[in-house]
Amino acid sequence: MHGSPPRLQAHRRWGQNFLVNQGAADTIIAAFRPRPDDLVLEIGPGKGVLTRRLLGRVRALLAVEIDPDLVTLLRAELGGAPGLEIVAADVLAADLRALLLGLGAGPERRARVIANLPYNIATAVILRLIGERAHLRDLLVLVQREVAERIASAPRRKTYGGLTVLCQAQARVEVLLRLRPGSFRPIPKVDSELVRLALHAPEEEAARTGGRAAPGALEALLRTAFGRRRKTLLNNLASLPGPGGVPIGPDAARRLIRAAGLDPGARPEEVPVAGFLALLRIRNAL
User: Fold this and answer.
1) What's the confidence (pLDDT) of residue 3?
2) Looking at residues 199-226, what average pLDDT do you find?
3) Antiparallel, parallel or unpaired: β 136-144 and 184-185
4) Nearest to 152 by CA among 128, 133, 131, 177
5) Domains within the chain, CATH numbers bracketed
6) Contacts of 260 (CB under 8 A, 6+ apart)
7) Helix (H) or strand (E) segment spanning residue 254
8) pLDDT (tens digit per residue) in 38-59
9) What is the pLDDT of residues 221-240, one digit of tens each?
10) Taking the CB of residue 89, how many other CB atoms lie within 10 A of it?
11) Distance (Å) of CA 133 to CA 6, 30, 60, 105, 107
12) Distance CA 115, CA 140 (A)
């Protein structure tokens, strides 16, 4: 005798909003453009609305789901599908590199990501994924509209900040589709947007940054630059750590900024992505 099916209500602690708009799901898959040789990591497959559309269209599909009830459902309904592996894990706590290597991804064959990301962890997941760009080719993610606006922002806007620069410095960003709240259950209070991040290859990134930057170097630079948004670039970068962790001070900061071709009196939100990459190149060379 079969047991009772798992309860499938959304859990608030995981920020679940299941995609139920079937037409939108078709549009998302069309935008993803799956190919027979693709290695795909799907984060948060939920009830499998996108998973089902990818089966048989890619070489390997790894679906990572945190909700044990949904893992049970997916394994019961899709567990025998060729090329599909379903893993019960929290993507923020899991060894992402190991998951990608297990999928067969590497610098010579980078994987792809598709995800309907919970609003409360979308930024953290995107930053983790960007950190594995040596093993990833592109990300197609559904996120809260506010997050999409920050990722795709132009300079001189309130939405422009460290997340903008991190994403645009390391990927080509496109906002492809807006979905109204009614496309999801439970119905969220905000719109969602579909964003593609086509990640730069390692050799392209090295050319843009003037060589291999130390891990986290750009993030550290941006934390300092945007630490006080109302202050000038000079005021903020004067606190950059120098030898022994001692702040470099205003004179060294002014030289750094001018060497990058920037105005020391500019505010951080006025500096384009290319300007921050120039700062990183100069700092790497010191």
Assistant:
1) 40
2) 81
3) unpaired
4) 177
5) 12-200 (3.40.50.150), 210-285 (1.10.8.100)
6) 275, 278, 279, 281, 282
7) helix 249-259
8) 999 999 999 999 999 999 999 9
9) 999 999 998 899 999 999 99
10) 15
11) 36, 23, 18, 11, 9
12) 6
